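INFO batch 0412 | record 1 of 1 | parsing
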Amino acid sequence: LKVSAKAVYSKYSIEPASPINFGAMIKGTKKSQTVVLENKGMLHFKFCIRQPPEDASTSESKSSKEGESAPLATRLSTARKSSSLTQSHLSLGMFTVSPCSGSIGPWGQQKITVECFAGQEGKCEEQLYIDIPGR
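INFO prediction complete | emitting C-alpha cells
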C-alpha cells in the first residue's frame, strides 16, 4: 500500500498594495477603485474584509507579499469613522467595500470594489483588514 501527501498553505496576492489613495475629490462626487485578491495556491480559501480592532494602530500596517501568512492592513485615504456591515458590503465613513467576504478557488481571483463618496471636507484615513482565516 503506497500512501503519499503534500503539505501546502494558502498563497495569495493583493493588487494594488496598500495604501489606496483616492486623491483630491470634489465634495459630493464619487470615485471607485478595484482591488484584486488572487488565490495563487492549490487550496480553496475564504476571505473577510473588516475593521481593525480598536487597539490596532495605523503604524501596524503590513503589505502583502505572495504567500505571506498574515492579514493585510489596508489604509484608505479620504474617510471618516463610523462603520456598518451588511452581508455583502462594508461601509466605513465615506467608503463602501464590496464584496466584504467570499471564497476563492485555486488559481481564482476576486475583484473587490472600494467606493468613496466625498460627502465631507478634509483629509482622512481608514484602515481595513483583509483576513484569510485558516492560512
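INFO post-check: Confidence is low (pLDDT under 50) at residues 58-73, 78-86.
INFO record closed
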